[in-house]
Design goal:
With about 425 residues, this protein is an alpha/beta fold. The protein has 13 helices and 16 strands. Helix content is about 45%, strand content about 15%. Strand 5, helix 8 and strand 6 form a beta-alpha-beta unit. The structure holds nicotinamide-adenine-dinucleotide. It is a multi-pass membrane protein.
Length: about 425
């Protein structure tokens, strides 16, 4: 009320300085002085308020930093620790104790399930970010839960959480799959790549280097490190200094960071360069997945073409083959050689291509999907955008064959058949809708 009065009083005072006259009455003088001070204060508040409104609107609507990066997760407590221990219980003789990061992801779910089913102790970690439909991640989590794998909800940048996990379970291995995947999303949200693929990887390595005993680490790099390399098939020692996307650059950075932690701290590190992995429970941002969705909806699908009508082809690799490669990499990983943060002797450092050795033009992938779905696709031929995608990928897998016994056995027709069967049953049952 008093403020209202003050405001109405202020309104009666001339605002033009030239009209502001000194009054003789000391009371009126004091009143005028206070009134002008109040007026100044009032307008300052209004101005400040406008600035704050503008600031908050601009930070919430266009901030490149997603809310996920600053999310906090609750963890800890006796019941929580018990679940961690139960999940990590080994049931096979010589079983491994594996922390799987990115366990609610496509590859992470399959790898965790495979490890668990052969009797290894497995604990998952995932931040369930919303890069794609989180209900799919939750469904994968429920699937793992049923086979006895607990996924901790947390971020790989949370060093306190990672340290706690190592206190509760002496992991022998870390299968590091958590990452910001996808090539084009980097233009929308570059910081998420730095957060998960660089800072997050360093956090994982920091904790592993200090753990006693240090675990061996197998982690997902990517075929995208070959970037603009035109020599095919891609061999591990080929140049990888021409990344075509920020995603590729962060994976390349990961390979260099891995070298450093191996060199200084004696961490045993194996990087796996996956080539376009597909299959049931896959990632909705990948072409085979959203082509299926859009063909079924009668929407047109973009088929990219390189310069001079050049074919765009991918070395599609079925998830079960990738899982076998991951398990073989874990099984053949030597122990890390450091302790107390110091290296005792040199440790194993490896990089392998995990591909299928037979690139398939994307248009052939669409033809297979058409046959499986019994629906004709509306193809829209477009120029390959220069924002991250490369024209083709083709793996030379002789190192993985020789040293890991890796031998992909699923052709694209068979793998897509499995995928389509899963897709139809997953999205047709219940009320889930493909986003
Ligand atoms: N799928 C492919 O074709 C392919 C190809 C090459 C490389 N890779 C690599 O393989 C790995 C697995 O890929 P995917 O296809 O399963 O991807 P995905 O996105 O399904 O799985 C990654 C998981 O990591 C989680 N994650 C991301 N950032 C995190 C963080 N900061 N803390 C905790 N969890 C985090 C996500 O929530 C997600 O569940 C990734 O490193 C990816 O870069 C995949």
């Amino acid at each position: 009320m008093s403020q209202m009065k003050l405001i109405s009083h202020i309104d009666n005072i001339p605002s033009t300085p030239g009209k502001f006259k000194m009054e003789k009455s000391p009371y009126i003088h004091r009143l005028r002085f206070h009134s002008s001070l109040a007026k100044l204060t009032f307008w300052s508040f209004v101005f400040l308020g406008l600035i704050l409104v503008f600031f908050f609107r601009s930070t919430t609507s266009s901030s490149p930093i997603p809310s996920d990066l600053s999310r906090t997760y609750s963890w800890g407590g006796l019941a929580w620790e018990k679940r961690v221990r139960v999940s990590a219980r080994i049931r096979a003789s010589n079983g491994l104790l594996v922390l799987v990061t990115g366990a609610a992801g496509f590859v992470g779910t399959h790898v965790s399930a495979a490890l668990k089913s052969r009797g290894d102790g497995v604990l998952g970690l995932d931040n369930f970010n919303d890069y794609y439909d989180t209900s799919l991640k939750r469904a994968r989590q429920a699937l793992l839960e049923r086979s006895g794998v607990f996924i901790i909800e947390g971020d790989i940048n949370d060093i306190a959480l990672l340290t706690k996990l190592f206190e509760v379970v002496p992991f022998t291995h870390v299968m590091h799959l958590a990452a910001q995947a996808g090539v084009r999303y980097a233009m929308e949200n570059p910081s998420s790549y730095v957060h998960s693929n660089i800072a997050g990887f360093v956090s994982v390595l920091e904790v592993c280097k200090s753990a006693n005993p240090q675990p061996a680490i197998v982690w997902a790099s990517s075929s995208s490190v070959y970037g603009l390399n035109t020599k095919v098939p891609f061999l591990e020692k080929d140049r990888t200094d021409q990344p075509a996307s920020l995603y590729a650059a962060t994976k390349k950075a990961g390979e260099e960071i891995a070298h450093t932690y191996n060199h200084i701290y004696g961490l045993s590190l194996t990087g796996l360069r996956f080539f376009t992995v597909y299959g049931p429970w896959g990632r909705p941002d990948m072409a085979y997945f959203f082509f299926t969705r859009d063909i079924l909806r009668g929407k047109s699908i973009p088929i990219f073409e390189a310069a001079d009508h050049g074919t765009v082809a991918r070395d599609f690799t079925y998830i079960d083959d990738i899982v076998k490669g991951c398990l073989a990499a874990l099984d053949t990983a030597e122990k890390s050689t450091g302790s107390g943060g110091k290296k005792k002797r040199s440790a194993q450092l490896r990089v392998y291509n995990l591909g299928n050795t037979s690139p398939v033009p994307v248009s052939n992938l669409v033809s297979i999907l058409e046959r499986l779905l019994k629906v004709k696709a509306k193809r829209s031929i477009m120029k390959l955008p220069r924002n991250g995608d490369v024209q083709f990928t083709h793996a030379n897998i002789s190192s993985a064959q020789r040293e890991l016994g890796y031998k992909p056995t699923t052709d694209l027709q068979t793998g897509l058949k499995n995928f389509v069967r899963w897709y139809l049953s997953y999205y047709d049952s219940g009320n889930k809708s493909a986003q």
